[in-house]
Amino acid sequence: MDRIRIVGGTQLHGSIPISGAKNAALPLMIASLLTPETLVLENVPRLSDVRMLKRILGNHGVDVTVAGKRAGESTEDGEVVRLNAADIVDTVAPYELVSQMRASFWVVAPLLGRMRQAKVSLPGGCAIGTRPVDLLLMALERLGASIEIDAGYVIAKAPDGLKGAEIDFPKVTVGGTHTALMAAVLAKGKTVIRNAAREPEVSDLAECLVKMGAKITGIGTSTLEIEGVEGLHGATHRVLPDRIEAGTYAFAAAMAGGDVTLEGIQPIHLQAALDKLVQSGTEVIATNTGIRIRRNGTPIKPVDVTTEAFPGFPTDLQAQFMALMTRADGTAHITETIFENRFMHVQELARFGAKIRLDGDMAIVEGTGSLKGAPVMATDLRASVSLVIAALAAEGETMINRVYHLDRGFEGLESKLSRCGAKIDRIRG
Ligand code: UD1
Hints:
- The chain has 14 helices and 24 strands.
- It is α/β, with parallel strands linked by helices.
- The strands form six sheets. The chain has a four-stranded mixed beta sheet with strand order 22-23-1-24.
């Protein structure tokens, strides 16, 4: 298993190109099941989750090809992936595949819409809480599907096709909104999704579906209206930049100190996180091409954070912000409202000398003047990158074990950080 070694204490200076968003690329790839024509996705990040989803879609009969690199493209430019689901050969998504990546459960919606049936294993994925799918199934039932759960599988059927309906989500769910959208576009008649997730990745999916011929209004708001169509066609769509990757490097620059420009990110997608950074005493400057993050010697002020659905502070940046707060000049309170078990990084951050106490859904972080490098273990995707951030700011050497978690979500992590002066390398094995 690969490990990552970091020697901390160096400021970060330079620019980092931000990759396409994993959380947008995955539902976009799944949307290819909705049409017999080719969906071309540009700026797809090279990540193990993307590779896994290519395999899962291949299992359903999707023909996946990756276009070669064009002249002038740097290695950081994402892939151009062509997906063609002319022949769906299998409507079963087996446990062995779905258990490795939670998002693949969403294939249930396009399979139902186009093939009128699907048998999909209940998901696995990052170990952050119970993560139910009841609301996803509720949405499909509202659209007329019959749902049965048998031996760990969801068996969904709609022999006469799905029918438009009103779907009111009792809480904001990204997965639920993706599922409802992909099911509704081919349903007969009109669907209204209320309390829809407003995450930029949801809007990215909706915009791609519109390019494929879907009729959707209210994109970016919490009420989406969909007028079902007979069929969708092919399209070309560019995956939006990864706001979580950008936020992660922004916090890294703030913690280690220095001056880093994050290229290609849209500040509006990251506003809640940038506001907290500014409150912590970091300079955040919007440029023509992205955002510049600068902190030179000024102390890090403690800032309280509560995770919320978009446009609130994202749960996917909670662990990284906690790392930053371990060096603050005082005590910060970090409350996690989306997932009940998303504090596994706390015990690993403690190995650097961080002082963090847990009280229910709140972490109380007492900042310390300095952290010391240590051997640590990656536990889930976002937790593991919080260890990278802490290691960059810690004195001495850190060895991060189980880095396959990082490879699920961060494209070119070592090269992006080392081009800013970080001492980071991967030990293969
Ligand atoms: C969530 C995050 C998303 C993040 C992703 C990976 C939110 C709103 N969603 O998306 O930003 O990128 O994790 O870390 O911040 N729920 C149910 N029943 C369901 C579905 C969800 O009770 O059927 C609950 C979940 O337990 C959670 C909340 O609703 O408390 C939001 O979950 P949801 O947005 O669906 O999760 P993901 O799509 O995984």
